[in-house]
């Protein structure tokens, strides 16, 4: 099997540490990992164990994951590779598969009770969307929500005010979450209609932390059930088969 490595170790160790975002603290050591590799992986970040360490299809190369961040250690325990590992024969990005698993763990750690959820009569697939009521493409996606629901795709919204805490978009999102009818308030806000200002305890700050772990850079960011992310608006006609395929892949 022909494998190629894309990437290099040019980043500084400080940058490497900064990128290692995590949502759990215990390492999962796969069978067949030499003790020297386990020890080196445990030392990469002070007071932070990797989420998993395991062999790759390449002899003498081991995958180390920290949340959605993935690096590789060579068998000598002295060399580290940062980049994507590609199986050319299969046309598969093995590193992206590991990232998807990390993203899924981040999303699964969130409480659905803290989301604004639009559920179909029969749910076949679920998408989780980082959204901002002042985002034009978020509005376009929401305008097509009925198409998604009819197709059996549940839409779970997470609050992600692009302008940050204390901004008008943050205040609007809080008001949506604190409304007596958050689904209708979300629809009204994205339609440009005024909603009653409200204040209460929400999970929006937690959603913003999760966005960092997932690697959100804008809204909407859509996370499919298998952890694949779609950075931006996708028409419902294209999104529905993607969502159904992701659900099928993990069931």
Estimated radius of gyration: 20 Å
Shape: elongated
Task: Look at the structure and name the CATH superfamily of the largest domain.
Answer: Glutaredoxin
End-to-end C-alpha gap:
28 Å
- How is the main sheet built? 5 strands, mixed
CATH fold description of the largest domain: Glutaredoxin
Mean pLDDT: 87
Q: What assembly state would you assign to the polypeptide chains in this entry?
A: single chain
- Strand arrangement, largest sheet? 2-3-4-5-6
H/E series:
EHEHEEEEEEHEEHHEHHHEEH
Number of domains: 2
Instruction: Report the CATH architecture of the largest domain.
Output: 3-Layer(aba) Sandwich
Structural class: alpha+beta
Count of individual beta strands: 13
Count of helix runs: 9
CATH class assignment of the largest domain: Alpha Beta
Beta-strand proportion = 15-25%
| Helix coverage percent | 25-40%
Poorly predicted regions are 1-26
What is the topology?
Elements (H helix, E strand, L loop, with lengths): L2 E5 L5 H7 L8 E2 L5 H9 L8 E4 L5 E6 L2 E6 L5 E2 L1 E5 L4 E2 H15 L7 E3 L6 E7 L4 H8 L1 H6 L2 E7 L8 H11 L3 H9 L13 H11 L6 E3 L5 E3 L4 H15 L1
Parallel strand pairs: 2-3, 10-11
Antiparallel strand pairs: 1-7, 3-4, 4-5, 5-6, 7-8, 9-11, 10-12, 12-13
Helix pairs in contact: 6-7
Structure report:
The chain is an alpha+beta fold and 251 residues long. It folds into 2 domains: 3-108, Disulphide bond isomerase, DsbC/G, N-terminal (Nuclear Transport Factor 2, Chain: A, Roll), CATH 3.10.450.70; 112-250, Glutaredoxin (3-Layer(aba) Sandwich), CATH 3.40.30.10. The chain contains 9 helices and 13 strands. It has a 5-stranded mixed beta sheet. α6 (168-178) runs antiparallel to α7. The longest helix is centred in the middle third of the chain and has 15 residues, at 94-108. The chain is elongated. The model is unreliable at 1-26 (pLDDT under 50).
């Amino acid at each position: 099997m022909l494998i190629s490595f894309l990437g290099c170790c040019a980043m500084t160790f400080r940058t490497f540490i900064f990128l290692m975002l995590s949502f759990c603290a215990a390492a999962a050591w796969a069978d067949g990992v030499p003790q020297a590799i386990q020890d080196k992986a445990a030392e990469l970040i002070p007071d932070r164990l990797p989420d998993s360490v395991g062999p790759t299809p390449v002899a003498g190369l081991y995958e180390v994951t920290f949340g959605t961040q993935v690096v590789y250690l060579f068998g000598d325990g002295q060399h580290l590779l940062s980049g994507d590992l590609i199986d050319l024969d299969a046309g598969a990005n093995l590193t992206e598969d590991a990232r998807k698993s990390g993203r899924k763990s981040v999303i699964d750690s969130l409480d659905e009770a803290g989301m604004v959820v639009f559920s179909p009569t029969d749910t076949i697939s679920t998408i989780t969307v980082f959204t901002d009521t002042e985002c034009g493409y978020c509005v376009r996606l929401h305008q097509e929500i009925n198409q998604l629901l009819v197709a059996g795709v549940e839409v779970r919204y997470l609050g992600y005010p692009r302008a940050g805490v204390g901004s008008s978009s943050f205040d609007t999102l809080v008001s949506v979450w604190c409304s007596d009818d958050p689904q209708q308030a979300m629809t009204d806000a994205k339609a440009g209609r005024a909603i009653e200002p409200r204040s209460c305890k929400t999970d929006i700050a937690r959603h913003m932390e999760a966005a960092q772990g997932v690697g959100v850079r804008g809204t909407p960011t859509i996370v499919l059930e298998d952890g694949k992310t779609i950075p931006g608006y996708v028409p419902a006609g294209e999104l529905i088969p993607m969502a159904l395929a992701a659900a099928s892949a993990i069931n």
